[in-house]
Amino acid sequence: MRPLARVTSPEVAGFFLDEHTRQGVRFVLGGQPALIKGSEHVTAVGLTDGMEIPADIVLAGIGVNPEMTLAQHCGLTVENGIVTDAQCRTSDPNIFAIGDCAARPISFFDNRLCRLESVHNAIEGAKIVAATITGGKPPNLEAPWFWSDQYDLKLQIAGLFNGYDHIVFRGVITDRAFAVFYYQGERLIAVDAVNKPAEYLGAKMLIQTGRTLPRDVIADETRPMKELVASAK
Amino acid sequence: MPKITYIEHSGKEHVIDAPAGQTVMEAAVKHAVPGIDADCGGACACATCHVYVDAAWADKTGEAGSMEQSMLDFANDVEDTSRLSCQIKISDALDGLVVRLPKSQH
Asked: How far is CA B90 from CA A179, B31, B81, B95, in A?
């Protein structure tokens, strides 16, 4: 078991695990909370194995499942999320669904049905639906992107790493500024950039335009990312 | 309260009373100024709140930091006066600031 298993590779997850550990955070991976102790205030969380973790504040981050009851009552097609077409239209043409609860085909990933939990996805869905309903100009679609600030580390992710078979580092982890590129064969499918905004934006641009760079080229830090992007086919 | 003027690419002006402490991006979004998308919510993570700061104000707004500069490198229609408006904090010294918006944030 490891943190961030759903969103990034073991390499990047391990980096963040180490970083939090260094900052004094203790991880109890696989721990199963059984009870919260305290009378007036919480004093501890008890786990099923008997371990007790003293606590003043408990923050429960337990993940999300899409709420699809309403959609199911309407007879809409649901799988992992309310299924829509590229215009965010559900199986009932008069009903649209957007945001974390909806799954739509993503053109940059062979129209794979994706349920994305991100601000960008929600905003883009809203733009698509607004354009569809009003007959306006559809938005320029972007490759899925995500970000997270942790301590002085800015993690920026573009693309979807699922199904990668190669990873390429640009920069070294110990510098606390590096990018990890995910490839499926020769095709660049995602980047995790830590304090490397140019690598993030460059890779996002490549993914959006269906271009790629050879793996040894993208790893060459002597050439600026912008120059590499301009040379990509 | 400091007044900030946003000029859309079309030339349309929006004058906003913006409290000190907000960023130039936040004030624009709160008043629905079109042309500032700010998709990441102000984390210097998306480069969709790109503005041009009138040269007369450049000293007061300061310079882009290294993270911001790297993001701007990939934005469209970047000029010497380009900034990400989420990185400009409004203060009384910026009362009267004028920023122009690019044609598109994407």
From this structure: 33, 15, 17, 8
User: Is residue B41, in this structure, part of any structural domain at all?
Assistant: yes
Q: Is A201 on the interface with B (CB under 8 A)?
A: yes
CA distance B95 to chain A (A): 31
Distance, CA of B1 to CA of B18 (rounded, Å): 6
CATH number at residue A198: 3.30.390.30
3-state SS class at A44: strand
Distance between CA B38 and CA B30 in Å, rounded? 11
Residues of A whose CB is below 8 A from B106: 139-140, 142
Of the candidates A123, A139, A201, the beta carbon closest to that of B47 is on A201
Secondary structure of A96-145 in HEC code, one letter for each residue: ECCCCCEEEEEHHHCCEEECCCCHHHHHHHHHHHHHHHHCCCCCCCCCCE
User: Which residue range(s) make up the domain with A176?
Assistant: 145-231
Q: What whole-number distance in Å separates Cα of residue A225 and Cα of residue B102?
A: 24
pTM: 0.90
- Decide which of A134, A158, A175 is a domain's last residue: A134
Judged against a pLDDT cut of 90, whether residue A72 lies above it is answered with: yes
Q: Would you call B80 exposed, middle or buried from its count of C-beta atoms within 10 A (0-12, 13-18, 19+)?
A: exposed
Query: Mutate which of B46, B67, B86, B87 to disrupt the A interface (most A C-beta within 10 Å)?
Result: B46
- Torsion-angle region of A88 (φ positive above 0: left; ψ -120 to 50: alpha; else: beta): left
DSSP A18: H
Decide if A197 and B70 are in contact by the 8 Å CB cutoff.
yes
Domain count for chain B, please give it. 1
pLDDT of B106 above 90: no
pLDDT tens digits, one per residue of B68-103: 999 998 888 999 999 999 999 999 999 999 999 999
Instruction: Please tell me the distance from the alpha carbon of residue A142 to that of residue A159, in angstroms, as a whole number.
Output: 9
pLDDT digit string, tens, across residues A130-169: 999 999 999 999 999 999 999 999 999 999 999 999 999 9
